[in-house]
Design a protein that fits this description.
single chain; alpha/beta; Spore Coat Polysaccharide Biosynthesis Protein SpsA, Chain A; two-stranded antiparallel ribbon; 13 strands
């Protein structure tokens, strides 16, 4: 069976971070992406597809050529607002692309087999890629997908409340994802605000951190979903075509089932500049334990 592909969503603007956080060398071995690609390579992934903006391609190519491209084949795909179906033209006031599902759709010509999707600015840990690699490397129906469900307590931030996709899981499969905000530890529980008001959740509640395993059957689902989105709020240039909502539509229509793989790692990531210290400390500790070499790629 073909080795799975790693698709990295790296087209973000980094406005809240104050710069191109995808390229920030926060760890001894480089950027968060360096560690993600390194972990994926160890888990049996065979190539990497970077979803980027055209204006950052030169920076990405320079980084990739000197680092992970020395070990794995790499491809660059642009996410642009004008990548529309049926010859449609985006509204004149829409200047940014259409969200995470639109980003994955951009990889439709570059991905030929099973693949994982991750964010460029999130550190997921080696176990996450091992779980995804194992799932994607086994023969299964094209409608069988996966999501890594992290324990809510392992995704909280010391700096304050966070927003997470709280997952409903039944018999090991995803039933739904509810966007929940202002989540913070309160004693032995986690409190936050859901669509219907305050919520109290157990610390081991599974949440989505945008770590998915797909077959290429996701692409026609995204295509039809994007058309429906454009026929609705997207037609006015509003909203985003998000990946959780697109997957939810496939589940509701009986087009896919999504196995929830237990997350075993503590997540950390870059949203604000203040997050840099925590991420750096995490990567330095992992390196000191021997989880990673100081020089990930044996660069000259």
């Amino acid at each position: 069976m073909t080795s799975p592909t790693l698709v990295i969503l790296a087209a973000g603007m980094g406005s809240r971070y104050g710069g191109l956080k995808q390229m920030d060398p926060v760890g001894p071995g480089g950027t968060i992406m360096d560690y993600s690609v390194y972990d994926a390579m160890r888990a049996g992934f065979g190539d990497v597809v970077f979803i980027i903006r055209p204006d950052i391609e030169d920076a990405f190519r320079g980084w990739v050529a000197s680092r992970c491209a020395r070990k794995l084949p790499t491809t660059f795909v642009h996410q642009v607002v004008g990548d529309m179906p049926d010859g449609r033209v985006p509204p004149t006031d829409r200047t940014k692309p259409w969200g995470t599902a639109h980003a994955v759709r951009a990889a439709r010509h570059a991905v030929k087999g099973p693949f994982a999707v991750i964010n460029a600015d999130d550190f997921y840990g080696r176990g996450t890629f091992t779980a995804l690699g194992d799932f994607l490397s086994r023969p299964r129906r094209a409608s069988e997908w996966a999501m890594v469900g992290f324990r809510l307590v392992d995704t909280l931030a010391a700096s304050g409340g966070v927003s997470r996709g709280v997952c409903g899981v039944r018999d090991g499969h995803l039933e739904g994802v509810v966007e929940t905000h202002e989540l913070a530890a309160d004693g032995e529980m986690v409190r936050g605000r859901g669509p219907d008001g305050p919520v109290t959740l157990p610390p081991n509640t599974p949440v989505s951190m945008n770590t998915w395993g797909f077959s290429t059957a996701i692409f026609p689902v995204l295509e039809s979903g994007f058309r429906r989105f454009l026929d609705g709020e997207g037609g006015a240039g509003k909203g985003e075509f998000g990946l959780p909502a697109a997957v939810q539509s496939a589940i509701d229509a009986g087009l896919a089932s999504v196995e929830v793989l237990p997350g075993t790692e503590r997540w950390c990531g870059l949203t604000h500049a203040a997050d840099r210290a925590e991420v750096r400390a995490t990567l330095e500790s992992a390196t000191a334990r021997g989880d990673y070499p100081v020089d990930l790629w044996g660069t000259p």
